[in-house]
């Protein structure tokens, strides 16, 4: 079981700039917990995501000696991939590929077809710099734009990614519209059909629906889950103030309740929970 903690996703939409020193201290605390991966920052235009403009500085000040967590940075184009790939400390480059043409344009200023072409070049960059590409299929369970969506479209997109030898794909419920039925259908069909791909779940949720979503994904074979402490962050297009990231503490409680040993440092996690309140206040 892999838990990916996503402070980048929790922070990026906050308008007031979180001081760089505070970000460094927070990510350093998260590194002590023992998460499989920390999605810590992004190499994108500071005009697009001002909150992440200090990602390189944060990275330079992380206490990585003795830490077991791998680092993931989000990129949106070839230039961002080149910038991120120069940093030896980064293990994963994450690219958002949408099922929705509208969201792909809004998110990366590209069509889906153009994004696929960029993705092929980014995969080459990853190979040449010993990085692993993580592709997020955003709007993977529906979209608010009335763009066409069905599960078969998602499966066809996975087939195209498989041709590019993408090894990690995270299905992203960008606006919190997934339900146990479509979660079970997608993971239940994709996991056995593409055994060379590791599938993850990046699920946004309301407080009332988190457990049914996690349970459906887990029972359908998903073993990689993204979360953010206290469920901070979310998508502004959700149009529901209750929709946020999957709370990491809920993921931990669920998996421990069914008997899984996540090998996390509980004292470090408790300190991170306390620290998160100050970071996101």
From TrEMBL:
<dbReference type="InterPro" id="IPR013785">
    <property type="entry name" value="Aldolase_TIM"/>
</dbReference>
<feature type="domain" description="Pyruvate carboxyltransferase">
    <location>
        <begin position="1"/>
        <end position="270"/>
    </location>
</feature>
<dbReference type="InterPro" id="IPR043594">
    <property type="entry name" value="HMGL"/>
</dbReference>
<keyword id="KW-0479">Metal-binding</keyword>
<dbReference type="InterPro" id="IPR000891">
    <property type="entry name" value="PYR_CT"/>
</dbReference>
<comment type="similarity">
    <text>Belongs to the HMG-CoA lyase family.</text>
</comment>
<keyword id="KW-0456">Lyase</keyword>
<protein>
    <submittedName>
        <fullName>Hydroxymethylglutaryl-CoA lyase</fullName>
    </submittedName>
</protein>
<dbReference type="GO" id="GO:0016829">
    <property type="term" value="F:lyase activity"/>
</dbReference>
<dbReference type="Pfam" id="PF00682">
    <property type="entry name" value="HMGL-like"/>
</dbReference>
């Amino acid at each position: 079981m892999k838990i990916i903690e996503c402070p980048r996703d929790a922070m990026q939409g906050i308008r007031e700039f979180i001081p760089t020193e505070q970000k460094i201290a927070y990510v350093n605390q998260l590194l002590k917990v023992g998460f499989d991966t920390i999605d810590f920052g992004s190499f994108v235009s500071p005009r697009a995501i001002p909150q992440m403009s200090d990602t390189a500085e944060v990275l330079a000040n992380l206490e990585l000696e003795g830490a077991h967590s791998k680092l993931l940075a989000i990129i949106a184009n070839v230039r961002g991939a080149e910038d991120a790939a120069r940093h030896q400390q980064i293990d994963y480059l994450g690219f958002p590929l949408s099922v929705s043409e509208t969201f792909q344009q809004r998110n990366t200023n590209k069509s889906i077809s153009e994004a696929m072409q960029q993705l092929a070049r980014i995969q080459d960059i990853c190979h040449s710099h010993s990085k692993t590409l993580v592709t997020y299929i955003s709007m993977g369970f529906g979209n608010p734009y009335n763009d066409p969506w069905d599960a078969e479209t998602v499966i066809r997109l996975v087939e195209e990614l498989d041709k590019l030898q993408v090894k990690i794909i995270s299905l992203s419920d960008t606006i919190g519209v997934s339900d146990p039925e479509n979660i079970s259908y997608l993971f239940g069909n994709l996991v056995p059909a593409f055994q060379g791909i590791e599938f993850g779940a990046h699920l946004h949720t309301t407080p009332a629906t988190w457990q049914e979503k996690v349970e459906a994904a887990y029972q359908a074979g998903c073993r990689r889950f993204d979360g953010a402490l206290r469920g901070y962050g979310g998508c502004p297009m959700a149009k529901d103030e209750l929709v946020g990231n999957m709370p990491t503490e809920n993921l931990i409680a669920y998996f421990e309740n069914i008997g899984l040993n996540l090998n996390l440092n509980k004292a470090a996690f408790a300190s991170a929970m306390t620290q998160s309140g100050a970071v996101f206040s």
